[in-house]
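Limitations
The structure tokens in this dataset are predictions for the assembled complex, not deposited experimental models. Users should treat interface geometry with appropriate caution, especially where small molecules or nucleic acid strands are included. An illustrative entry is reproduced here so readers can see what is and is not provided.
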Amino acid sequence: MPTLSVFMDVPLAHKLEGSLLKTYKQDDYPNKIFLAYRVCMTNEGHPWVSLVVQKTRLQISQDPSLNYEYLPTMGLKSFIQASLALLFGKHSQAIVENRVGGVHTVGDSGAFQLGIQFLRAWHKDARIVYIISSQKELHGLVFQDMGFTVYEYSVWDPKKLCMDPDILLNVVEIPHGCVLVMGNIIDCKLTPSGWAKLMSMIKSKQIFPFFDIPCQGLYTSDLEEDTRILQYFVSQGFEFFCSQSLSKNFGIYDEGVGILVVVAVNNQQLLCVLSQLEGLAQALWLNPPNTGARIITSILCNPALLGEWKQSLKEVVENIMLTKEKVKEKLRLLGTPGSWGHITEQSGTHGYLGLNSQQVEYLVRKKHIYIPKNGQINFSCINANNINYITEGINEAVLLTESSEMCLPKEKKTLIGIKL
Amino acid sequence: MPTLSVFMDVPLAHKLEGSLLKTYKQDDYPNKIFLAYRVCMTNEGHPWVSLVVQKTRLQISQDPSLNYEYLPTMGLKSFIQASLALLFGKHSQAIVENRVGGVHTVGDSGAFQLGIQFLRAWHKDARIVYIISSQKELHGLVFQDMGFTVYEYSVWDPKKLCMDPDILLNVVEIPHGCVLVMGNIIDCKLTPSGWAKLMSMIKSKQIFPFFDIPCQGLYTSDLEEDTRILQYFVSQGFEFFCSQSLSKNFGIYDEGVGILVVVAVNNQQLLCVLSQLEGLAQALWLNPPNTGARIITSILCNPALLGEWKQSLKEVVENIMLTKEKVKEKLRLLGTPGSWGHITEQSGTHGYLGLNSQQVEYLVRKKHIYIPKNGQINFSCINANNINYITEGINEAVLLTESSEMCLPKEKKTLIGIKL
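Predicted assembly:
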């Protein structure tokens, strides 16, 4: 028996910050609440699944004509086509011109991994990345591991308690040739001149946009509205990458249903990029998983099922909005100091509570309500069973910490250019 | 509209050699036959799926209690446990000692990607890899891309028409500290002293073994027998990696059901290695796909279903053996020159026909029977519909090319140390 291990120099890895969930799980307090789940939750506290997904899953498993062969490296063709049509609209000029394509990836993390590998190999001038702070932990670290210098930015103004279009416009004051990772900026409410300024700065500085669309339809329930930003960029002839995930808006979390979307100036360039991506995906996983993609394709390609899915999105979004209204109303009735209108002014499952770091700490430590440091929570985690406890907790946190600090987190002096 | 593309310097990628299938698909000849599918085929020419898989898939899709949340980065725990018990045996000393673990990966390509990334980061002395030639194209290139120098080897002796244990023993005459990728060497029929020599050379040279077990149960239908090599290495206290794929032996090809197995000298070292692998998997895909793993776990953990699965493996292996017998018998009846006993002496779906490169070329060009250059075919692609055409083709190829070359491929002068 050898006594020296080949692995003797391998240390235990430091865990990522994502240990809020771990701390929550280890907490014995009976009324503990976790408000930072990545996925949309039902009123009963389970991960939401569109009903039509369950039905389609059953239909598929009963279909003897299906085969379960390896997918090609690029993935399920019909899935990519249907998803791109969903993202850009069926009559998108870029689709008609054959300059939009995609690689079916293992979820959005796979899409980022693939896109970042490509940028490292083929876009060598870009070595600086600006990433929206909510994506810092997941995707920012992958950029960093591959040698990029990563800065995070946030368009949330904790003083004014809103998404500030001016902050977004300041973000593009970043150096020439960077990669700019953008999430949904629907709540920024840019004016037409704001849009024009944003576009022209990105263009003149040759900034490469890398969009992140993790849950189309779960912001406003209007599928087109939720990807309006992409239409703007396509119409202006931009080339870009986009990570499109279909996990959260269908409720297929465990199947890696992502696409790395590529928009190029013409079909020839597109084919070159896709061919290089194919080589990278071949080494990464060779064949992406099929089940989730197969379910989604069946739904997107069948008008009746598509209608059911859209209806389910609508119900979810209405439910989240109702929850937000209730939170606001309860805080009003409790007489909690401050204005809480920003809660209902934000779209989507995740939004800022507008608490400062002391208040967040108070909720975590004293009330066992687990909230990330930046105060951005998943509103679908709030339901009839816990809303009173949560709003009373917020009220207590605000009353007991209010005097010591106004709503600006202490440690954040500037909003852009914070290096990871 | 910008006229210069960001991607203007990106060329079209060169395709990998795997274009035999492409040539086959483009061939208009009505009787064309492809004998190089990666998966086990049924007599009807479809990818084989164990019947119990279909049944279990249906059961799972009808179970309302299941949730479809993201899996943890390390994957489905019960899947890993059940698969490791399958690989090493339930009462394996290494499992009892808690020094065996695994990461659920996106298929075997994902397992190799993860393992190679780890070796690059943490086993820096090993920069040379010897890989069995059948895995060269898939996994050898990934090693190469990550900076390893890759040599291929084969244990098949095309002169003697058998797996030669001496070649295997020569393979370990490789430099100190290499990585040695080994497939199933069951057909090598090593003697006890051969085993002892192999082990002692690998140990004294500090060679790191990386096993590839792509289809346990599809060699001999005896699950234990098929991984005997692992038991030898475990019993001798070796540390190693193993890519375990459960795609082919269950017939779940499209779901990425792989595991990177780690065997360490003790639990402490194991946990360090797994923690580093978790960090790497987080960046690669964050959450592995669930469906395939869930189906397999249900089968492995239910004695009745397990029995059905084992029975289905038995039928497949018997069927392949029968096909091999028929091929041999038909060649005998045709009076084809040469001895064809090697066909039935090899285990598993894939085996060498024992043809030289001229004969292979003849079959591809003249008969439209698509065979890889090394003459290794998938015997499950031969069925009642095509066996006569194939054996008559082989007969013709041997008769018309026999005189010009004996059974040694021209271009292969040495069997080991061929650099990629």
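Some entries come with short summary sentences. For this one: The radius of gyration of chain B is 22 Å.
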